[in-house]
What we know:
The complex is a heterodimer.
Chain A: E1 4-5, E2 14-15, E3 20-21, E4 26-35, E5 38-48, E6 53-57, H1 64-72, E7 79-84, E8 87-88, E9 102-105, H2 117-124, H3 131-141, H4 143-147, H5 158-170, E10 176-180, H6 188-203, E11 207-211, H7 215-221, E12 224-229, E13 232-238, H8 239-244, H9 246-253
Parallel strand pairs in A: 6-11, 6-12, 9-10, 10-11
Antiparallel strand pairs in A: 1-3, 2-13, 4-5, 4-7, 7-8, 12-13
Chain B: H1 2-36, H2 43-57, H3 67-90, H4 98-120, E1 135-137, E2 140-142, H5 144-166, H6 168-178, H7 180-185, H8 190-215, H9 223-237, H10 243-263, H11 269-283, H12 286-289
Antiparallel strand pairs in B: 1-2
Helix pairs in contact in B: 1-5, 1-8, 1-9, 1-10, 2-3, 2-4, 2-8, 2-9, 3-8, 5-6, 6-8, 9-10, 9-11, 10-11
Amino acid sequence: MGDGDSKGRSAGPGIDAIRRYDHAILSARDIETGYGDLQVLFGVDLDVRSDEIVLVFGPNGAGKSTLMRALVGTLPLWAGTVEMNGDDLSGLEANEMVPRGIGYVPQTENVFPNLTVDENLDIGTIHAADPEARREAMFDLFPRLADRRDQEAATLSGGERQMLAMARALMPDPEVLLIDEPSAGLAPQLIERTFEYVDRVRESGTAVLMVEQNVKAALAVADRGYVLDVGENRFEGDADTLRDAERVRDLYLGK
Amino acid sequence: MASALSQFLQAVAFGLVEASVISVGAVGLTLSYGVTRFINFAYGEFLAYGAFLAFFLSGAGAGVVGLPVAAVVAVLLVGALGVAVSRVFFRPISDRGALPLLITSIGVAFILRYLLIAGASAEARQLPVPLMRPVEVAGVGLTPLELGVVAVSVVTMLAIHLLLQRTMLGKTMRATSGNRSLAEVAGIDTDAVIRKTWFISAAAGGLAGILYGVLFAPFRPTFGFGYLIVVFAATLLGGIGRPYGAMLGAVLIGLMISLGSTYLSASYDQAYAFIALVGVLLLRPEGIRGGEF
Lengths: 255, 293
């Protein structure tokens, strides 16, 4: 990872130093935000480069979902910037992020329950250049959805909903897909499958930024990760480095 | 025996005619609820404005255009009124929850009603429609005017059905109704969708008012608020926020009013709707919790 430009104490493969990248597609700098009087994020830096799967993990209450919401504009920034390919996105409405290449899958309530599978994808076509080609690509990626295309999303299983949520967000062919806890609430045998899908999303040319509690399985597909704790980056590094680092393991990966 | 049967069929026919008016009104009310999640008590005034604008624009008032053209213009104007009202009164407090919005809408209803009375006087008016003889089929008689009201309503219901199922606007309306925050991050400009929904909702209210004026002349500027109870009963019966439920609710309420008027007493016609409303709240309270379309 040669273009890493070290901000802090030590260089090398990351960990203590939060590296900043010059050629990232999505870049967040010094993000601060919160709810009402409660500050949750205290200056978070984050980069996602093309063809990368980036994982954000850390203990409960670290501000992981808040970070996602700040990046996609559903939570206003108190300070800091979010840039996409060098364009400042700070202050844009959430609906203006989609045409700028950001897709987002919230953790819960991430499909339109009253719309059919096809109609959920239709919503994704608003900003899609070639809707029918995208729809076919989604049915190739998630063949199960093709069998369910006329069913209301409310009738889908948890795993199918997660597929539909990802497919809807992928319809406009975003440059980066943000996924909040894709494996939450899924049966163990589906969790592995979910990360296979994440991997295939990256193969299809969309970078992925995901928050995930299921760190071991997620690190298996991720390239890089950030450890978030009490609203700040604690560690950053390549997936292998984070997995093997003792301090990270003791603190955040479980024994 | 034959006359008892034809009396019943006649009552059913009248019930369906009234259901046509209620249905247009109920669908409009339920659409705005579906995306904004509050019950707009100013909705009855859209009915009154529709009828009065049609009156003034057509022969009976300024005498510039015929009733059909006047009706179309009135419907569009009421749609614009709906957008303006939502912009001025509802949007600034849209993040305060349903109760402040609901109470505000009661205030808006008073403002609109007394502006109408100030501008048009409290006098009863009549749309310029000819008196017509009923056409009898199998002992059931309806005037061409009444059949016309049914036809306009059926076409309106079909149009709303096609809007919701086939057009991108309709799908984004349903998506916004189903999950507004997801709609926003999915790239839908939900403010614009809500604005368009206000237009459609208020326009439907205006049309319902005109159909009311065609059927139940003469009418006063206060009729909208009174008829809101009837529209409201149908909306709740179908589950507020559900357009197809509102259509079904309208048929049931229309039949109830007509059968009640025929077999019990015609003096209490709107009371039957009120009884139905209370019944819904007692037996089917989920109707007021609402759903999405």
